[in-house]
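Study this pair:
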Amino acid sequence: MSDTPTPPATAREWHLLSRPVGWPEPENFALVEAEVRTPGEGQVLVRNEYLSVDPYMRGRMSAAKSYVAPYELGKAMQGGAVGEVVASNAEGISVGDHVLHFLGWREYAVVDAKSAVKVDPQAAPLSAYLGVLGMTGLTAYAGLLRTASFKEGDSVFVSGAAGAVGSQVGQIAKLKGASRVIGSAGSDEKVKLLTEEYGFDAAFNYKNGPVSEQLRAAAPDGVDVYFDNVGGDHLEAAIGSLNRDGRIAVCGAISVYNNTEPAPGPRNLARLIQTRGRIEGFLVGDHYDLQPQFVQEVGAWVRSGELKYRETVVEGIENNLEAFLGVLRGDNTGKMIVKL
């Protein structure tokens, strides 16, 4: 394609200089100029158009052993990204194609073709492949339907419900016949969004009073499924309101990511004995077999307008770090995206 721009000799990328202790600080990071390499055998060069920033990235900034390798000091960080192929040395991917990959936090990326997924900008906006139709959306889908074994008629509670994952969990539950969907969020504005735009039956601002009391008022008949994005007092409250054979899917615990001391665990775990409840953690990476089914089902809901999503868009790679810190503060409504 003649209108594909020639790649520059150098481009910018974010490096991790030191490991944050507690809240990440700007001096832990640097925006540097790096050489734009020519793709080797089986590789493509991608001009990134949208970058994803997500809470899990905070874990990769520490050296602690986790489910995904820590970021290396002095090297470019990684994350979801979608962009246009500007040079290809791989079969099956041509210049002008758009791909989803995991070498974000940079303007240009040399990507192994086998780890890139072609996406169709005609079927959905490119940014949607980082959120509602991407890893975020699959997290909501797999966690609710597989890990929490959701079934029609269940009452569902979602914490962090105005976030990218939580808002999708609540809507999928409604679309699949939940009897009641309750969400918690951190502002009155987000609470309004949950009930007025996303169709939640009830929602509350967790800053307005004890979570356990607000949840009991919002779900007088208890909850069958709790989708946990927050941990802490939310998890304890959910255990307190769990019905017989209730299920809890643990997706994240953003309330404790920057703690330097371990957070106290729920004090009422013994209640799982009488409710025969179960708590199960999950990682989206274990559920990629659901991807085709997910894209087909959720893609149709997105196109029909039955499933709504919001994005908070920050412009410019120089603002990538600030966008990430914004996610940790809860500044975003829906998926936080960086547009290059």
The mean pLDDT is 94.
